[in-house]
Every structure is written in structure tokens, then in C-alpha cells.
Amino acid sequence: MDKERKLIIAGNWKMNKTVAEGVALVNGIKREVKDVKEVDMVVCPPFTALSEVSKAILDSNIRLGAQNMSEHNSGAYTGEIAAGMLKEFSARYVILGHSERRQFQKESDELISKKAAAAHAASLKPIVCVGETLAEREGGQMETVLLTQVRGSLAGLTKPQMEETIVAYEPVWAIGTGKTASAQQAQDAHAFIRSLLVKLFDETVARRVRIQYGGSVKPSNTRELMSLPDVDGALVGGASLEDRSFADIIKNSI
Ligand code: 13P
């Protein structure tokens, strides 16, 4: 697929996989995608599996990401993990502001923007998640919600930092539900997010930022979603937990 931006396909394992299961999964993925150069591929295991998964992908084309991090560098923050600690495992990416964290941990846009700044300070590329709920979409609030989240979560980033940031559009109603956004819904939302980036940063930045789609991505809907002009990759949950389906998503995106 000839796209303006290099596609980035990331697997968000969420709270799944023991260390042994994670290593087995990534070894399976590695075998399947060893010749792939056309897309960036990332796996985001839970913290406990980062060390071993990192070793397993050392000499591969797969990169490592984490699912969250603290906005602080160190100190008395029990239970938190700092960006520098993720770097110890050669992580390159970190998912921030996933809707599950916005919902269950009450993460705010302001907090997410601090985390994004801390990630960049440690040379980690943040994958910043935004997306509306079903009630918000049905109430005609989609654009307002996206504007608030994009403006708030990316506040304070410099233009060069923004270019190295990935935005993931994940409509909450499509996550884990089997309901994928239609091609039109996805393209409209992505184009709207890119128009916000033009206003908040500039045309060049907006043209360079990769916007992933997330929400019930599977091998059978990958090709259509990835062919959309403003869709630059996928953030995959459930279908990233099995080597064959994640590899098929990658192959179908090429
Ligand atoms: P599913 O692919 O399971 O719908 O999850 C999407 C997601 O939340 C990825 O971050």
C-alpha cells in the first residue's frame, strides 16, 4: 500500500500474558513478520513482561512499547513506573491516555500532556489515545470531545515533539465490542483530528503525524481501514494476543 506516512501497527496486550506467554507470542510474531520492512511494528506487553520480551525481539524488526508511565522522573510515587525505567528495556514507545485509563484511573487530558512531555524528555515516542463514547457520538459531541482531548493531551508539545508523537483514534464504542468504525466514520474522525493538528501546530506537522485507528481491528477489516488516506496504522487489542492474527493484520496492511 503506497501511503504518505509509514504505517505503524501496535499491539496493546493490556493486562494479558505472563512472561512465558508473552515471549512465546512475540517469538511467533517474529517468525511471521521477519521480512516485513514496509510498516513499523510494535508490541506493548504489561510491565512485568517488558524485560524478557525486549530480549526476545533484540535482533528483530519489532519494537517495544509500554502501556503507561508516570509523569514524574523518580521519587515517592508508590506503584508508578518512570520513563527512564522503560528505557532500560529499550522501549521506544509508550501508550498514554488509553480510554481504559481515562475511565478507570480517571486520567485527565492535563495529566496525559505531562506524561507526553516526560516521554519525549526520555526520547520515548508517546502514542496518545483519544476517542468519544457512544453517548457522546449519538449526542453530536464527537468533534467537541476530540477537540478537548487533542488540545488538552498534546498541550505544551513543541512542533518537533508533535511530529514524533503518534495519535491513536479509538472510539470507545468500538473497543473490544466487535463493532468497528465504518471506513467513512474512521476517515472523517482522522481527517478532523488532522485538521485540529493544523490549527494547534501547523500544516507540516499535521502532515507528518501518524494517526492510528483502534477498536476491533482484525485481519478481515485491516485492508479497508489502512487504505483510508488519513489512517496511518492500527492500535490493536484483542487481535494482537495471538501471533497469527497480529501477523495477518500486519501483512494485510502492506
Ligand atoms: P480491541 O482491538 O480489542 O477492540 O482493543 C482496541 C484497543 O483498545 C487498543 O488499544
Tell me the count of domains: 1
Would you identify the regions where 5 or more consecutive residues have pLDDT less than 50?
none
Given the helix and strand composition, which structural class is it? alpha/beta
Could you estimate the helical fraction of the residues in percent?
Answer: 40-55%
Number of strands: 8
Report on this structure.
The chain is an alpha/beta fold and 254 residues long. The chain has one domain: TIM Barrel (Alpha-Beta Barrel). Helices cover 45% and strands 15% of the residues. Strand 1, helix 1 and strand 2 form a beta-alpha-beta unit. The model has no long low-confidence stretch (mean pLDDT 97). 1,3-dihydroxyacetonephosphate binds next to strand 8.
Set down the secondary structure blueprint.
Layout: E1 8-12, H1 19-33, E2 40-44, H2 47-56, E3 62-66, H3 83-87, E4 93-96, H4 99-104, H5 109-121, E5 125-130, H6 134-138, H7 142-153, H8 159-163, E6 166-169, H9 183-200, H10 203-208, E7 210-214, H11 219-226, E8 233-236, H12 243-253
Parallel strand pairs: 1-2, 1-8, 2-3, 3-4, 4-5, 5-6, 6-7, 7-8
The structure holds 1,3-dihydroxyacetonephosphate (13P).
